[in-house]
Amino acid sequence: MDRPRVIRVHPQDNVAIVVNDGGLRAGARIPDGPVLPGAVPQGHKLALVDLAAGDPIRRYGVVIAHAARDLPAGAWVNEHNTVLPAAPALDDLPLATVRAPQALPVSATFQGYRNPDGSVGTRNLLAVTTTVQCVAGVVEHAVRRIRDALLPRYPNVDGVVALDHVYGCGVAIDAPDAAIPIRTLANIARNPNFGGRALVVSLGCEKLQPARLDLPEAALVTLQEQDGFGPMLDAILSAAETQLEALNARRRETCPVSELVVGLQCGGSDAFSGVTANPALGLAADRIVRAGGTVLFSENTEVRDGIAQLTARAATPEIAREIIRELDRYDAYLARGGVDRSANTTPGNKAGGLSNIVEKAMGSIVKSGSAPIAGVVPLGARAEGRGLLYAATPASDFICGTLQLAAGATVHVFTTGRGTPYSLEALPTIKVATRSDLARRWHDLMDINAGTVATGETSLAEMGRQVFDHILAVASGAPTWGERHRLHNALALFNPAPVT
Amino acid sequence: MDRPRVIRVHPQDNVAIVVNDGGLRAGARIPDGPVLPGAVPQGHKLALVDLAAGDPIRRYGVVIAHAARDLPAGAWVNEHNTVLPAAPALDDLPLATVRAPQALPVSATFQGYRNPDGSVGTRNLLAVTTTVQCVAGVVEHAVRRIRDALLPRYPNVDGVVALDHVYGCGVAIDAPDAAIPIRTLANIARNPNFGGRALVVSLGCEKLQPARLDLPEAALVTLQEQDGFGPMLDAILSAAETQLEALNARRRETCPVSELVVGLQCGGSDAFSGVTANPALGLAADRIVRAGGTVLFSENTEVRDGIAQLTARAATPEIAREIIRELDRYDAYLARGGVDRSANTTPGNKAGGLSNIVEKAMGSIVKSGSAPIAGVVPLGARAEGRGLLYAATPASDFICGTLQLAAGATVHVFTTGRGTPYSLEALPTIKVATRSDLARRWHDLMDINAGTVATGETSLAEMGRQVFDHILAVASGAPTWGERHRLHNALALFNPAPVT
Ligand SMILES: [Ca+2]
Ligand SMILES: [Ca+2]
Ligand SMILES: [Ca+2]
Ligand SMILES: [Ca+2]
Ligand SMILES: [Ca+2]
């Protein structure tokens, strides 16, 4: 058997996670720690010190439960010998109670594309956006022709991206919630990676008229004004040339990290997500914030049960109340659809060592680091201000990524344990593996291996620094695996309003 | 000025529509009809006979309103001199009151692909379906390689289609309404055009596990079991070869039209939709039904205000009650999202000659012809039985088309006035223009010009026969414009359940 190995995430934690394959047997001795009175499975928690009945169980630096009885150091801590905290009601939460940690400023730069509106992109892309799905087939043909026939003549342009979606017609466009997909589409086209030079392709009679997107500098092609399929392609290619001409003049220049907007997400998580990739990402996020940059974290249903930690970390009581409002609205949305939230922690989660829903949420929240939450980005809105922001999106990988694109993210970092080839086309997507096994097997998909934290080959601090450095390299133009393969997912709009 | 020209849709109608550009002046004489006492705009109705106050106004063979005062033959009939019928409540509708029209059987055949389960396809396609959006990027690469490297070796296979969608994870998979997208995806993969030989690409950890699709004869590739991107592509290509081998053995054979399933839809409609393309399609639909075939018509929000005509035409009271149940459920879905149905008839509709919402609905319903409604297809279900069926889908072109694909349609007929390049990849999509001007301008997109009905160059009966013949030709392999250009829209699932 390997040398016993555990991971403690936060210095104040009184439990740690077993790393070894197959878990640890009774009698195993933790280096600088207790001897185990009984076996503890892999991914599960053991007590680092003697705990008395009623003592708080601290993981991720927060109380995730209380001891149900006395537990000696080394004992397995699980859902049977702990007491769940009360369900987090929304009317009695701590508001901005945590003092911001000491944060020495960091000075760092990257090579970005500065835009006329002051924003900075990490890529130089021609966006071909659409007001309705009817035009998608024509746009697909046009994009292929732009890529093959035009791009070689505009060497400073990195690529062309079709912003394809199923919104725009056959929808209740004046329903109260329709504002969400509409502003999402408008803000996606304004993403800094597109340099303010999107091309809008409209059918003509759709409900989502181009004026609703309010994109004054975008070029517009209306298919119903063209005399057939051939002329449609010609019109799009001609408009594309005008925009490519302008985009081709963009050049990378040295920009402070304060101009960077990094969107964080996880998907296909496992027991190691919360101990390797996510905390390393949290350290990188802290570093970006200390450099004055912007970090977006998200995933309503994954933070919901750790909401007390978010409201406590809010920079002001008003920001805490905004977080509560967003999650309250999401609760109501789920309830309207008859969703039973109690099914949140699955048997698989518990078998993997997650004793309860607070612990599960903390494993996701830990990727946000420890900075104060400086603001909330509503669904589909563009992020305002800098620092760590909560972009209140669903956890669905595609919808979260689409909304972070709308929020103005210019780099996307995605942690995964079980593995997904997920990637966005308009946003370089850095994939971080939680386990070395996954990183080895998917060597041509995973950009960073955080699994070496679990085996002790790399310290969490070093891994945090690696992730930070990798973010700056990618922001400066280094391609991700997704970009190398030109491998990407579709966009997915969040539309809680009815279709018609 | 052109010779005065009007269109009467149904022999029992006592009003007709003015065709002439610019409308007709006072004094104009309708051939075999009245002299106009005043002007009537294009697309608007005139009385064909003297009407007394209280007389029913018949259009499409149904009562769309009553005369508010005496109206002489030739008078303009509009919303000011007619009385709207009562809003169609759902609790007092005629149930199966219309006697089925005399229907002489029609004998006709097409060249189709007969499947082991008895269904007949019109195309021989390899479907690569997906359980979750994570895999879409990999599938896109794989489909390109299948097309380029494998298809040339399987000459009897018409193509390969990626069934890409954003469902499958990050969704409330146990919410009551989740059954709709799940059975939609399962039934799409069972469409007769795929020969029972779909290939399912799964990630591994997604909520929509492949077993939920219940596709015993499908091949399965799970990406999380593969060692990276290269091996993922190899695994999909290898599974594709097995299925292509089987599909390549399929041959077209002579099949009766009773094996054909034709899905009807309209989109981007104009004032002529209800007088040229839709009634011609209605005659073609009647002919398919008389030949024992299956016709699906749809679009809840467009038939809602003509529901009395549907329930009256239902073959049995139980079928009428099923129609009512489906539309009642859709009313509730729209109400949950705060949609105001009273906005249905727009000022543009009225300016175009549509006096009220019943008349608007009838312009859409007329494409279903005059056969009795023999059954209702619930959302996402596969059609059972033959004859004219109401597939209770939203009107959204993409969602309606996707649900008709799930219902087992093997040919799609789409009428359009304003023009849309809409087309499905898995289902040959015949586009019918309502106006000659559109058909001329979009000569490389519109498959049939029904506009010649308005100008009298073609009778409605002849046009109905042309549409019928064209459906059989396309069912037998003649390519549509969409297929020639390989131009198609994305699928769009109807998912009224929440995302998470
Ligand atoms: Ca997540
Ligand atoms: Ca996610
Ligand atoms: Ca329609
Ligand atoms: Ca439609
Ligand atoms: Ca696509």
From TrEMBL, chains A, B:
Q: Name one GO molecular function term.
A: galactarate dehydratase activity
One of the GO biological process terms: galactarate catabolic process
* The enzyme's E.C. designation: 4.2.1.42
Which keywords, in A-to-Z order, does the entry hold? Lyase
Question: What start-end ranges are recorded for coiled-coil regions in this protein?
Answer: none
SAF domain sequence ranges: 13-83
Enzyme class, first EC level, given as a word: lyase
- Pfam families with a match to the protein in the record: GD_AH_C (PF20629), GD_AH_second (PF04295)
Instruction: Please state which protein family the record places this protein in.
Output: Belongs to the UxaA family.
Protein name per the record:
Galactarate dehydratase
Q: Which gene encodes it?
A: garD
